[in-house]
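ok so I'm stuck.
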Amino acid sequence: MPLSDAVVRALRHADQKMHEVERGDVFSVYEACRAAVSAIAPVDDFYIALVKDRDRRISYPYLFSNGRYLETGSLTYGPGGVVAWIAASHKPYRHRDDNGALLNRGVRFGDDELSADAAVVPMIGEDGLVGIIGALSDTPSVFTDEVVTAMTWLAGVVLDRVQAADPGRRLDLSLVYPELEDDGRAGALLAVNRTSAALTGMAVEIDGLRHHLEELTSEGALDERLAALSRRCFEVQAAIITRVGQHASVDGRAESRPDPLEGLSPRERDVVALVTSRTGDPGNAGIARALDIGTATVKTHISSALGKLGLQHRSELRWLVHGGPGPLDRAEG
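replied:
not stuck anymore, here's the structure
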């Protein structure tokens, strides 16, 4: 779709900023992306996350809410939220699609108020979903098709810069940050998250000291140094969590992929197995014959399974189960 002049200017400025930063400075890349989206829509909360669908791991190197940075980290996402839906469909999610139902199933950050509008777009690489970019607003109906198109374009630029920052070799972070050393009592991922939390605490203390000094002195140079040090804490967080998010597991060992159909009943699993079979979806009538049940019952099981998995259409089940569409899909309603 054609973009307005204001949106084009914001995208051009973001592209220039992202390509001017030093290689490895992913924090500035994320900052430029947020600034561009905030320039074209009222954004109260913003995040960038890297996704490893194989082990259902999501890492947040950048979180911003109501004018401040938040603690970053990694966690496992569930099968019924926005991330799982995007991983299955590879499509942008809009609050208006379901009045925020999927959005509110996931982990909430920022204040306790539910967002009035949201848009979450995927970052798609050669091997599938790499990450997501999310923008939330307390103002309803602000993320128009134009904004989502702009966010999708920005997702491609961010992905390009993040991948360019990867030196292609494993970085031994323990040489620089001894606190990341695994002592046997906690996994490397937990150690990274603890380091991230410690950096957040440092940033808060530094920011508090800066505000206190503002009351005592007008020395601008000192204030600038403290502000830069506070920002540096979040830059380190972004670099660490981005590196973690680019690997399926922190210690290099592959983790088994969680069951994407957990939570379904045995009969719902039987129906989904037929819908996603390698030979193609046999349709409601074919499923009814195979399981010796009525077509109305088949529709009930499919509707229930889609609701539990956070999907809208049966064709999306193949993405969730197999990671791609089948050549013979002919889904019925």
